[in-house]
């Protein structure tokens, strides 16, 4: 997803030229790990098919030269009403059949859709923002098991039935299953440093708004 502010005549000084903001997936860019912590300066984008794909997306969105202020927002799993990842989870969780995926120990970087839109808007409107921003919530220590428990609590349902790794691989295929079974602890360090104020920094409040 990318957005480009309407352009100005080329004769205007560089500070008034168009800005470009694009969004890619942090969960695909950074290498899965149970111990590593990733911020916007951490390496990644070169260890499997999806990470290389994100690297190519970011390269394609980049404009040549230094005349344009450019921002890349690497988003986590987006939580919102009426679609996205949450729509696939709601039915089993409403039936009391939800639970962690695989071991549940993997980190689960997430963001409410209102905050993803807010970060993109902030990046376009704030002239000091530049480079990579991690579009994830500050509650970066959320594990998949903690997410399952929080979603169950938001729905008033138990969430104890794990989805075995072999079932995930059978449904999604090996490469796509990695994104669900292996997570990353992603920190929005630069996003916070730019002054962005989150509407939903905590998982419980975000999920309650989504399922209300």
UniProtKB/TrEMBL annotation:
Protein name per UniProt: Short chain dehydrogenase/reductase family 39U member 1
Region described as Disordered: spans on this chain: 1-22
Name of one Pfam family that matches: DUF1731
Domain DUF1731: 164-209
Species of provenance: Prolemur simus (Greater bamboo lemur)
InterPro entries linked: DUF1731, NAD(P)-bd_dom_sf
PANTHER family: EPIMERASE FAMILY PROTEIN SDR39U1 (PTHR11092:SF0), SUGAR NUCLEOTIDE EPIMERASE RELATED (PTHR11092)
């Amino acid at each position: 997803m990318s957005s480009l502010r309407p352009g100005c005549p080329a004769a205007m000084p560089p500070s008034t030229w168009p800005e470009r903001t694009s969004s890619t997936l942090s969960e695909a860019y950074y290498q899965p790990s149970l111990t590593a912590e990733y911020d916007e300066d951490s390496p990644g984008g070169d260890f499997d098919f999806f990470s290389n794909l994100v690297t190519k997306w970011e390269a394609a969105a980049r404009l040549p030269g230094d005349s344009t202020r450019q921002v890349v927002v690497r988003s986590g799993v987006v939580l919102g009403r009426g679609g996205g990842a949450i729509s696939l989870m709601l039915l089993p969780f409403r039936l009391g059949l939800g639970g962690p995926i695989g071991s549940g120990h993997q980190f689960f970087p997430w963001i409410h859709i209102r905050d993803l839109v807010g970060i993109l808007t902030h990046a376009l409107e704030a002239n000091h923002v530049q480079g990579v921003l991690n579009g994830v919530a500050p509650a970066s220590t959320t594990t998949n098991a903690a997410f399952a428990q929080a979603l169950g609590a938001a729905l008033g349902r138990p969430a104890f039935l794990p989805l075995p790794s072999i079932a995930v691989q059978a449904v999604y295929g090996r490469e796509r299953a990695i994104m669900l079974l292996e997570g990353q602890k992603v920190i929005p360090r630069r996003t916070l440093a730019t002054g962005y104020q989150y509407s939903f920094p905590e998982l419980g409040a975000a999920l309650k708004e989504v399922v209300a």
